[in-house]
Amino acid sequence: PAKLINRAMIEAGIVDPYQKGDENAIGYALSKASARLLSAKSQPLGTSIYLSNSAKHDTSYAWDIELGQIDFRSVNPNADRVAARGVLFTRNRFKHIGKPELAVLRSIGV
For residues 45 and 110, is the Cβ–Cβ distance under 8 A? Predict the structure, then answer.
């Protein structure tokens, strides 16, 4: 988001950087992913999906985030291993699909 792009304004204290859970940042991320989310919803249940992180600044640092090699600000605890945590959450929640899990999947259009 534009707020993150202008590092000088953040360093000068004019704007605060986003933190984990910020609705504007989440909305931005979802808007960037919307085409892929629509595509994923059209696939049959059981189709493999691939998660990625394309974070970059001066250099690409997505793998540093995924490997836990980034020192995050205190307002962003546990912000590393995004893809790995997503995989674990999905695998653990939907390993066995019963009526409650199927209801969740149906509610999100799968």
Answer: yes
